[in-house]
Amino acid sequence: MISKENNPEFLNDFLDYSTTILNKSVNTIKEYNYDIAHFLKFIAYHYKMVKIESQQSIKEIQIHTMTLETVKKITLQDIHAFLGYLKNDYHSKPATLARKTASIRVFFKYLCNKMKLIENNPAQDLETPKLSKRLPKYLSLDESRKLLETVKNPLPTSHGNHDNSVRDAAIITLFLNCGMRLSELTGINISDIDFENNKLNVVGKGDKERTIYLNKACITAINRYLEVRPKEAIQANSRNALFLSEQRKRISNRTVQYIVKQELRAAGIDSNKYSVHKLRHTAATLMYKYGEVDIRALQELLGHESISTTQIYTHVDDEQVRSAVERNPLADEA
68, 220, 257, 284: which has the highest count of C-beta atoms within 10 A? Predict the structure, then answer.
């Protein structure tokens, strides 16, 4: 929950607008609240409205009495100073700075363009920090097969208790075949699954619903789990949940993260290098690399708003580059 009593009224109005009118997700609202509150606290320090011992204490500044008169004074240079403070004092990564920039930009757009509370928008020409283009980490096809084999055939000596092995196998199978997000998997209800047409409705980022088509491996894994899924003593608000925890309630994100880490270790794969989100990368990469999936189809499947987000999966490895050269029709013209 967000502690709105610590915010100035205009910030809470912005959060309410983002929730009701823009229909932003709970996580996005939390990010907006954290980012803008931190920014306003920096402004209070930057304008010498308060005295603190060090910049590390900026987060402790109280801003609930800040007025729009202060906000009206903010310039683009002040925003740049804030981003510089984040990078220098917190060693914030470009992705973090980009998120802060986006939050600040939408906040000032609300104040200036939507509500006309300020005359000038200091973030109008604010540029997004340049992000380094890094290829996503993903499991190879052999590693993916090894992980599936391990979770389907657990060894008590390496795993421990296997009462949930069928459930865990279904979880790993869905991740590697469908590329769904963690929250999408934990949010699956049995009623969301269309067994006749082998498809599933999930709710993704921004509370947007999309359809995921299930292949034979997924349907088989789900059916196997439903055969052993607890039938009694399920908590009332979790009776429709597909995946249940040992407490017989909807499985949590943290539990799934733990399961994935355990299965990676059991398969001899570095669990510090890979995570749940890396399994999403793996599914997308394998589909693009071996399934000859069109980039637009992959965008739809992954639930990306922008095609540019999906394009990170169009990377090619050395083997593909060598193969392309060998297939050149002039290759034999020696």
Answer: 284
- Among residues 24, 41, 181, 281, the one annotated as catalytic is 181
Q: What are 114-125's pLDDT values in tens digits?
A: 999 999 999 999
Whether residue 304 lies in the annotated active site: yes
pTM above 0.90, yes or no: no
Domain with CATH 1.10.443.10 in the chain: 141-316
pLDDT of residue 283: 87
User: Which entry of 280, 281, 288, 289 is annotated as an active-site residue?
Assistant: 280
Is 162 annotated in the active site? Answer: no
Domain with CATH 1.10.150 in the chain: 4-114
For residue 22, give the nearest of 128, 127, 114 by alpha carbon: 114
With CA atoms as reference, report the closest residue to 206 among 334, 84, 25, 328: 25
Q: Which residues does residue 294 pair with via DSSP β-bridges, in sequence order? A: none
Question: Mean pLDDT throughout 215-244?
Answer: 95
Judge whether 41 counts as a catalytic residue.
no
pLDDT digits (tens, 9 = 90+) for 274-308: 889 899 888 888 888 887 777 777 777 788 777 66
The model's pLDDT over 205-227, given as tens digits with 9 standing for 90+, comes to 777 788 889 999 999 999 999 99
**Lookup: tokens for 103:** 């939050």
Residue of 159, 205, 248, 249 marked active site: 205
Catalytic residue among 152, 277, 278, 315: 277
Which among 127, 116, 236, 216 has a CA at the least distance from the CA of 174? 216
Return the pLDDT at 158.
47
Catalytic: which of 167, 250, 281, 304?
A: 304
Catalytic (active site) residue 205 = yes
Q: Domain 141-316, what architecture?
A: Orthogonal Bundle (1.10)
Concerning whether 280 is annotated as a catalytic residue, the answer is yes
Identify the CA nearest to 29 among candidates 184, 250, 202, 205: 205
CATH 1.10.150, domain 4-114, yes or no: yes
